[in-house]
Amino acid sequence: MPGCTGVAPYYANPTKHDFEPRIGFAWDPRGDGKMAVRGGFAIFDVFALPGFFYTQQGIQTPFFLVGTVSKPANGIGVLGTDPTSAFAQIHPPQPGCASPVGTCALTAGFMEPNPKRNYVEQWNLNVQRQITPSLTATLGYVGSHGVHMLIRGDDGDMVMPTQTSAGWLWPSNPTGKDLRPNPNFGTIRFMMFGTDSSYEAGQVNIQKRMSHGFQFGGSYTYSKSMDNDSATIAGDAFGNSITSWFWFAPQISRAVSDYNVTHSAAINGIWDVPGAKSLHGPASALLNGWELGSILKLNSGIPTTPLIGGDPMGVQNNGSDTFGIPDRVAGCDPVNHNYKSNPNGIFLGYINPSCFTLPQATPAIASQCVPFGFSPPGSKKPNPGIAGTCSNLLGNASRNSIVGPSLFNLDFSVYKNFAIRKISESSSLQFRAEFFNILNHANFAPPLPFFGASQSQLFDQTGASTGAGGLQFLVTQPRDIQFALKLIW
Predict the structure, then answer these.
(1) Domain for residue 229, yes or no?
(2) Structural domain of 27
């Protein structure tokens, strides 16, 4: 082709010559076999090619041309309607791009052509001590660090902000012009390797092997996971995820991970109920051979992000769920801890809306702010908006700043063993009754940002309160009982 100076690889693979050391040790400091100190360190590469080709392969120019139906000017529309009304197009048509509803715009994908090496470092150190012949205790520390991690979004062709003393400010655009860098293009999926992650955890574990008819285990983990976005090659891997954060400034979304659980504990036990060896016949069959078991699971909740619905900042991100971020009221607890009911018996939302406000204009940026609810002069219903607010400012209530409800789950089981001596000395028929979530405790997911009624969206695009903040989805099943027979020989 004219102007083509040569041919080069489409992507560079940074994982051709990798050094991935793995080091581990175990030490018995007392020399009596009752204590062990263990540790290890390893590096693992994260291969780039799956990220290049998964979800991106259908739109990699210049090899593919994909058409995207342009976003309706009024934000709504149904396939098959008149393209001159509900589907008033905001992008001009492109050659070779056809749509059942009229014009469309070309879609493309951009992947960092020369990414740096993406890898994860992992390490651990623990001390284990035998307290009795059947009882051991372990105290440990584990950690990891992800380097040059993936960040992906559905549309990188977004309006760019500037960083001000009040925070990230998007251009004042009261008339709704298309201010994207590539206004004649559709969505441009992007993928770069410009973020990192970290995880640290302290662990305690106690194990008692079966002795004197009793077995017990217990563990507790105190941890913290941090990243810029928690997904891998798709932005909405988790129900509480924001689908597409800001690739140009990953520090905006630096926070605890979508899957972060600070406290996690699990306790389990089995009790072989003592029987009377002197019993025989029907009495022995009825009273002997019983076992009781239970598992208790406790952990703190996963986080969620308070949002403003719509696209109040004018990001014009056409490929993902749009959103804004409110301001956080300093010193205010964002969670209604009596969310199930108050003394008057009135149901409350989980999020305390009084702890959040619309982003506020400061004197330094007041002239560049568009108030919430503003409609320019000449429109059908001119509105000066909510004084003092700044819709095009990113609020300071950061990503994953609200911790969702904790989890409590108790499972219980009853076993009855009937010996079958005619088969063998160890043969038995076991009747099992298992009760999952025996207390029928409701464990809720946090208010989610985009699912159902979008319960973490506290304000709409005009700045009006939505009354959101409640709970909709369960993360565990209601009580479930099952019975079984098991033949052991």
Answers:
(1) yes
(2) 22-48+115-154+180-318+403-488
The one-letter amino acid code at 154 reads D
Burial class (CB in 10 A: 0-12, 13-18, 19+), 129: middle
Instruction: Identify whether 62 is preceded by a cis peptide bond (ω within 30 of 0).
Output: yes
CA 89 – CA 69 distance, rounded (Å): 9
Q: What share of the chain is helix, strand, coil (3-state, %, to 5)?
A: 5, 40, 55
**Closest of 257, 337, 344 to residue 302, by C-alpha:** 257
Q: State which of 9-13, 38-42, 59-63, 70-74 shows the largest mean pLDDT.
A: 38-42
User: C-alpha distances in angstroms, 161 versus 90, 126, 129, 172?
Assistant: 21, 47, 56, 10
Model pLDDT for residues 214-272, shown as the tens digit of each residue:
999 999 999 999 999 887 666 567 888 887 888 889 999 999 999 999 999 999 999 99
What 3-state DSSP class applies to 252? helix
pLDDT at 272: 92
pLDDT tens-digit readout, 96-136: 554 444 456 677 777 888 888 999 999 999 999 999 999 99
pTM of structure: 0.84
**Is 134 domain-assigned?**
yes
**How many angstroms separate the CA atoms of 203 and 237, rounded?**
27
Going from the C-alpha of 285 to that of each of 277, 419, 488, the distances in angstroms are: 11, 8, 17
The closest alpha carbon to 255, from 231, 232, 224, belongs to 224
Dihedral (CA of 394, 398, 402, 404) sign: positive
Place of tokens 């372990």: 138
CA nearest neighbour of 265 among 203, 323, 308: 203
Count of domains observed in the chain: 1
String of DSSP letters for 113-130: SSPPPPEEEEEEEEEEEE
CATH number of the domain that residue 281 is part of: 2.40.170.20
Give the Cα separation of 426 and 214 in Å (integer).
Answer: 20
393 near 313, Cβ under 8 Å? Answer: yes
**Which residues have CB under 8 Å from 137's CB, separation 6+?**
128, 129, 131, 204, 205, 206, 207
Q: At residue 141, what is the residue type?
A: Y
